[in-house]
Design brief:
This protein has four helices and seven strands. With about 220 residues, the chain is an alpha+beta fold. The strands form two sheets. It has a four-stranded antiparallel sheet with strand order 4-3-6-7. A hairpin with a 5-residue loop joins strand 1 and strand 2. About 20% of the residues are buried.
Length: about 220
């Protein structure tokens, strides 16, 4: 036999509220004591207060978690941008890079060649507020992996209103640096305010000496909400 009490807190609270109200109105008829009615009313109020307090705590926790994730993504993006510029600047001494916590590349006799091909990409935007960028060498689009001597792929993006990206040539100066990705696919995260907008990407290879290659074509993808 199924329980007559609802399982969900909201439904249970409403059911008990009506039960207490009816018990109070029909107290003499059902033979309920004053103590029974008083307990029903006070305990119903306590349950309502506890549920409200719990839901407020849950909302605060979700908000704090989202705020921390957004702050983390923003500062990591800035750190990677500055680090990429430092690593590509030959004037920065190895000792300075080491003090900044960056990897110091060992000097070898055989230097990696400068990148000469462009990086293309396929963007999967099926997940809300996330783009999975799968980059490839446009000189060998069917082959997995990076060109010889390449350490990674710089990903740059500009977010625009939907439709504004059409037939627009975007210069790197208008874009923000996302990451120096070493593996594909690479996930790019967006804020909720970007829902429905278009992300315009341009990519380029970076070799193991920090030398960058030519810019790839503009790739446009919608930010799903």
């Amino acid at each position: 036999m199924s329980d007559f009490l609802p399982r969900r807190d909201g439904d249970l609270l409403a059911w008990i509220g009506n039960f207490a109200q009816q018990a109070q109105a029909k107290q003499a008829m059902i033979g309920a004591s004053n103590d029974d009615v008083a307990r029903l009313v006070s305990q119903h109020a306590a349950l309502a207060q506890a549920i409200e307090k719990r839901e407020a705590a849950r909302a605060a926790s979700r908000e704090a978690t989202q705020e921390a994730l957004m702050a983390r993504e923003k500062v990591i993006g800035t750190v990677r941008m500055v680090a990429a510029r430092v690593q590509s600047d030959r004037a920065v001494a190895a000792s300075d890079r080491k003090e900044m916590g960056l990897a110091v590349r060992k000097t070898t006799r055989s230097l990696s060649p400068d990148p000469t091909t462009t990086a293309g990409a396929i963007v999967d935007y099926s997940k809300p507020f996330v783009h999975r960028v799968r980059f490839f060498d446009e000189a060998a689009p069917t082959r997995l992996g990076k060109p010889f001597g390449v350490a990674g792929c710089q990903i740059w993006v500009k977010v625009t209103e939907r439709g504004a990206a059409e037939n627009t040539l975007v210069s790197p100066e208008q874009m923000r640096f996302v990451a120096m990705a070493t593996r594909a696919p690479f996930e790019v995260n967006f804020d909720t305010v970007d829902a429905g907008k278009q992300a315009m990407y341009r990519l380029r290879w970076v070799n193991t000496r920090g030398v960058v290659g030519p810019w790839g074509p503009v790739i446009v993808a919608t930010v799903a909400g």
